[in-house]
Write a structure and sequence with these properties.
Layout: H1 11-17, E1 64-70, H2 80-89, E2 91-96, H3 102-112, E3 118-122, H4 125-132, H5 140-146, H6 148-154, H7 157-160, E4 171-172, E5 183-188, H8 189-194, E6 207-208, H9 209-222, E7 225-226, E8 229-230, H10 241-252, E9 257-260, E10 263-266, H11 271-285, H12 298-306, E11 312-316, H13 321-329, E12 342-345, E13 347-348, E14 360-362, E15 368-372, H14 379-390, H15 392-400, E16 407-410, E17 413-416, H16 418-426, H17 428-435, H18 457-461, H19 465-474, E18 478-480, H20 494-514, H21 519-536, H22 538-555
Parallel strand pairs: 1-2, 1-3, 6-13, 14-18
Antiparallel strand pairs: 3-15, 4-15, 5-11, 5-12, 7-8, 9-10, 16-17
Helix pairs in contact: 1-13, 6-14, 10-11, 11-21, 12-13, 16-17, 20-21
Length: 557
Amino acid sequence: MWKKGQFRFTVAMVLMASMLAGCGGNDKPAANEGADGGNAPAAGNAAGTNGGDGGNAPAGNKPVTFTFFDANVGDSFDNPVAKEITAKTNVMLEIQQPTGNPSEKLNLMLASNDLPDIMDIGRGDILEKYIAAGALVPLNDLIDQYGPHIKEMYGDMLKKTRSADGKNYYLANWYGLEQYPVFGFLMRMDVMKELGVGDKTNNGEPFSSDEFVDLLKKYKEKYPTTNGKPTVPITFNGENMGAITGSFKGMFGIMPYYQDGGELKTDVKDPRYLDMIKFMNSLYTQGLIDPEWATNKTQQYEQKLASGSYFATADAFWNLGKPNTILKDGAKDQAKKDEAQFYPYKVLAPGVEPSKATYGPKSSLGWDGIGISKSNKDPVRAIQFLDFLASEEGQYLMMWGIEGKDWDMKDGKHVPRPETLEGFAKDWDGYSKQTGIRKWTWTIKNGPGSDGTPYDLIGRYQTDPVSALAIKNLADTSFDTAPFDNLGPSGGTPEAIIQQKVNETTSKYFPRMVMAASETEAVATYDKMMKELETAGVSKLEKIYTDNYNKRMELWK
């Protein structure tokens, strides 16, 4: 899927957005953010909790070291933020991270029963495998006795992360639904003005599909050739089919599953899916889509966009950081360099209301699960440690850094120091490694804290022009995918093999349908795909989807 659960300034801010959404390397979230933070009390005010006393570790809690497996970040726990966390909790971590595939390491640890004390595992099959094997301890009683901040911050989310037995085995990160955009149709703002739609470049209004097609045609008419070849207005990244389908599905309001009565069916059975294919095919047969789109590699795609020869694309807006930087630097009028960039817009298919567009798939359940393993000798101290991280104080410490050094409290609000913002703008990775700010995102909640400032300083506090317009144009298309997450068959089952075959079949036929010679051929190709899916056993999968969905809805009551 699109990437993992975000969401820099000028060049850096656009590139930083890819760290979110997913996000996005470890692009979280983006694909997975958002509820408002509550007024959590200071971490030292609750009986039995650690920290919150200005940096002095709580009396009676001897220093303890936990081993911590983090599938995402392997840095040593010794930067300034880490040291401050240790000072407030008396907990030191030995971070473990595989140099190879995290999934392979997790499977090996489970098979050998060699488990670290605390584990950060991506939500999905492996996390469920750990729970089924009894490798993670139930957290319910621990949270009731020692997790006041967990209960306040997570709230009803704890119901949604329960397992079938009604118990909680992990705490989500990047949890809660946030109204934040993901996919969209990106168009050059300066060219839009040339084509006569300058009034719609920044007013937040969507484009109809006819208006969008008209712009593509006008561009082709105004610039009939590029480097001696016929101009094509729009290109895509063939290595990121999820972004292409996500954008066009968003335009047609297509959900992760087609709900037909009380049954969940694969989304390609949604009548609007075939309408989407017909629309894409019409763009292709009219010569409006790059004929090489399906084989474009990421670098080639970025080079094409940066060349200035293309007007539009369909993508997550944060993926265009590199071409936008080059376009800005090469703008003839540097006073209007921001207009040279690609900006994301909402395009609506016929009959789709603006509120029904689905450009922003976001899971309120987050990306990872942080659990305490059965090997942990002191689960009480472990849950107290996680309770501090989950508190508002812990959130701001992990994501903003140290008060008086990286930020200050002014008039009741968190205010970052200029040097902190500048450090991230110049070198995101380096500054994060140096300070520890946003290096770890365990137990992080989406949205603002009690004073209205976002927990995610770098991803949300200050936005570049592209991100700001994305929020204006597309934030209202966010929808929660959590009810539909991981409804498929369990790994290693015969049905999982069917799922793989179904995925391969739809992936194979998608470009064929788009690039069919005519609409008639596109429809015939779609019909052929549907027959292959039925032969592969898609109907068996749909029964599993429906059954798992109904069980989940019952569990969430």
